[in-house]
Amino acid sequence: MAVELLEPVQIGNYSLQSKVVMAPMTRGFANDLGIIHPDTINYYKIRAFYGVGMIITEGISISKEAQGTVGIPGLYTLRQVEAWKDVTKEVHKAGGLIIAQLWHVGRLSHSYFTGGTKPIAPSAVQANGQTHNIRMPYETPRPMTITDIERTIADFAAAAENAMNAGFDGVEIHAAHGYLIDQFQSYITNLRKDEYGQKKFLFLEQIIKAVGNSIGIDKVIVRFSEHKDDLPLYYWENPEDTVQEILNVFYKTGISLIHPSSPSFKKPLTNHTLTLHALIRKYWNKASIGVGEMTPNIAEEAISSSEIQLAAFARPLLANPDMVELLKRSTPLKKYHPETHLSTLLP
Ligand SMILES: Cc1cc2nc3c(=O)[nH]c(=O)nc-3n(C[C@H](O)[C@H](O)[C@H](O)COP(=O)(O)O)c2cc1C
User: Fold this and answer.
1) How many A from CA of 111 to the centre of ligand 1?
2) Is residue 3 part of a domain?
3) Is residue 279 part of a domain?
4) Which residue among 179, 260, 271, 279 sits deepest, i.e. has the most Cβ atoms within 10 Å of its Cβ?
């Protein structure tokens, strides 16, 4: 069991020690200046040490305006960049690769977290619910002007450059789960009448181009999803069209590794008989990362059939920093308990 999954692989310029990816997980331990907690170094290092092939970090704010709750690290000040250098150095020493997930939450925030200014979004559509961690009602956002759009694209590119200066191996653009980029992609949150309303993936395309120009497109991964954290009933009305539309953006911009996010890898899309990853494989001939209640057996099967090339695990890797090692020894994995595993960075 789990033979392929645990084997090294070459994906583009990346040499991975296994096909196990650590999925991005917000932890909330950074200080008020967006500087990571010192334990973050060992938190990521031990997972690389025990054989995770690629670590995708927690969502990292690209600016103060991009932040959605407390404890989120940034990549927009020198001190933030300096602190990340210790993480990337140790992960590399342990044989791993580390990718910075670049995050802007858009409307899923409150002026309490964004530095006093109203959260921004494609349109003034307020989200239901409250911010994570410190509970604040989501504020009605200020619709983005063209200047806001240009500034945000530049912030993504600058954060990507900072990530490279901090020693990261690449970046993942967080275009999933109902956050800013995804807000442009949804008919509920994007009511614009300009070209950003007509072409729902234009903002994403411009960000990919800007980030690619700043660090090289071979170092850019994109995460996207049907599901939105704040809109549980949302679904793609025509998944075939939507998937082809988004994949065209990736073909056009030269992306070669994508990270489609599903809450449950084996579950078909709401309006389709296929799962998200199976539908993508129909139209995508490059590498893709599987995720969502993944088990080693599911991952093994999907990698063997070439549906995906890498398998990402979130909660299992919180409960089992040595997961790859345990699988090699056929030792059962520990169960994930949020109260235990979310309360500290180190066991
Ligand atoms: C504590 C926690 C924090 C998360 N934070 C993020 C995040 O910052 N960015 C993101 O794209 N996904 C985030 N996710 C979603 C995971 O990356 C992953 O897609 C999801 O948990 C499904 O994988 P799993 O079934 O292996 O846990 C988070 C998940 C958890 C459990």
Assistant:
1) 24
2) no
3) yes
4) 260
Ligand 1 pocket mutation, candidates 5, 22, 25, criterion most atoms within 8 A of CB = 25
Q: Which two tokens stand for residue 185?
A: 């992609």
DSSP per residue over 216-253, as a string? Answer: -GGGEEEEEEEEETTBTT---SSHHHHHHHHHHHHHHH
**What's the pTM?**
0.98
Nearest 5°: the CA angle 255, 303, 88 is: 55
Cα of 22 from ligand 1 centre, angstroms: 9
In a domain, 347, yes or no: no
Ligand 1 atom 7: residue of nearest CA: 25
The mean predicted confidence, pLDDT, of the chain is: 97
Strands 287-290 and 310-313: parallel
Domain boundaries, position 44: 9-341
Q: Which residues of the chain have pLDDT under 50?
A: none
- Which two tokens mark 335? 């169960």
**Catalytic annotation on 179?**
yes
Instruction: Please report whether residue 294 resides in a domain.
Output: yes
Ligand 1 atom with least separation from CA of 291: 23
Summarize pLDDT for 280-316 with one digit per residue, the tens.
999 999 999 999 999 999 999 999 999 999 999 999 9
- Could you give the number of structural domains in the chain? 1
Contact 175, 223 (CB under 8 A): yes
Render pLDDT for 189-203 as a digit per residue (tens, 0 to 9): 999 999 999 999 999
Which CATH number is 90's domain given?
3.20.20.70
- Check 43, 50, 179, 196 and give the catalytic one: 179
